[in-house]
Amino acid sequence: GENVEQHPSTLSVQEGDSAVIKCTYSDSASNYFPWYKQELGKGPQLIIDIRSNVGEKKDQRIAVTLNKTAKHFSLHITETQPEDSAVYFCAANQAGTALIFGKGTTLSVSS
Amino acid sequence: DVKVTQSSRYLVKRTGEKVFLECVQDMDHENMFWYRQDPGLGLRLIYFSYDVKMKEKGDIPEGYSVSREKKERFSLILESASTNQTSMYLCASGLLGATEAFFGQGTRLTVV
């Protein structure tokens, strides 16, 4: 089955800096790669996703890149703000299977 | 907006009790999922269901069972609760295929 590794487990940045979180996956058949943000006391919410036919996707300050050959994908947050502080999860799956998640990254943005 | 509702935010149960965690979604999604979240371990899949009365084991199904009698409702059952099942339980739903999963707010279960 699929296995997703996520690094780092914690990340501290200054407001305005960039943050990068990296994930690798094991199943070359996976073709959907979402990123979720979880704030305290809430369930995870999708912030951006990418499919295997695309190499990069951007949404304002957030971008995701995918390298299918190396089986890794990354989340990039630019101009970080205190409200970006949360736990971030990457995940991977293919049709007919459930999302398999990484272990999460706790991002702290200090002002 | 998609809404996934879990019946309880907090539950405290005794060791050996049979525990039911209920989840309802209002978007006619085919897929429903139960995950368990523990610090440092991320979200681990317990069971998922892609249709009424259908279920698939996830990575950690031991000690759990599920029931899906109606499309909108997916129940997680702890047959005999144990202290190592103290955790946050998250329900999610989604369309068929490789797509976004929508999560409920979670149930924090404590087994004493």
Short description, anyone?
By secondary structure, chain A is mainly β. Helices cover 0% and strands 55% of the residues of chain A. Chain B has strands at residues 4-6, 10-13, 19-25, 31-38, 42-49, 56-57, 64-70, 73-78, 87-94, 102-103, 107-111.
Secondary structure: elements and pairs:
The complex is a heterodimer of chains A (111) and B (112).
Chain A: E1 4-7, E2 10-14, E3 19-25, E4 32-38, E5 45-51, E6 56-59, E7 62-67, E8 72-77, E9 86-92, E10 100-101, E11 105-110
Parallel strand pairs in A: 2-11
Antiparallel strand pairs in A: 1-3, 3-8, 4-5, 4-9, 6-7, 7-8, 9-10, 9-11
Chain B: E1 4-6, E2 10-13, E3 19-25, E4 31-38, E5 42-49, E6 56-57, E7 64-70, E8 73-78, E9 87-94, E10 102-103, E11 107-111
Parallel strand pairs in B: 2-11
Antiparallel strand pairs in B: 1-3, 3-8, 4-5, 4-9, 5-6, 7-8, 9-10, 9-11
Mean pLDDT of chain A: 96
In whole angstroms, the N-to-C terminal distance of chain B is 37 Å
Please report the number of helical segments of chain B. Answer: 0
**Number of separate strands of chain B:** 11
Gyration radius of chain B, in Å: 13 Å
Average pLDDT, all residues of chain B: 96
Oligomeric composition of the shown chains: heterodimer
Beta-strand percent range of chain B: over 45%
As residue ranges, the low-confidence spans of chain B are none
Radius of gyration of chain A: 13 Å
State the separation between the terminal residues of chain A, measured CA to CA.
41 Å
| Main sheet makeup of chain B | 7 strands, mixed
Order of helices and strands of chain A: EEEEEEEEEEE
Helix- and strand-based class of chain B? mainly beta
Q: Could you estimate the helical fraction of the residues of chain B in percent?
A: under 10%
**SSE series of chain B:** EEEEEEEEEEE
The parts of chain A where pLDDT drops under 50 for at least 5 residues are none
The major pleated sheet of chain A works out as:
6 strands, mixed
Which of globular, elongated, flat, extended, rod-shaped describes the shape of chain B?
globular
Helix content of chain A: under 10%
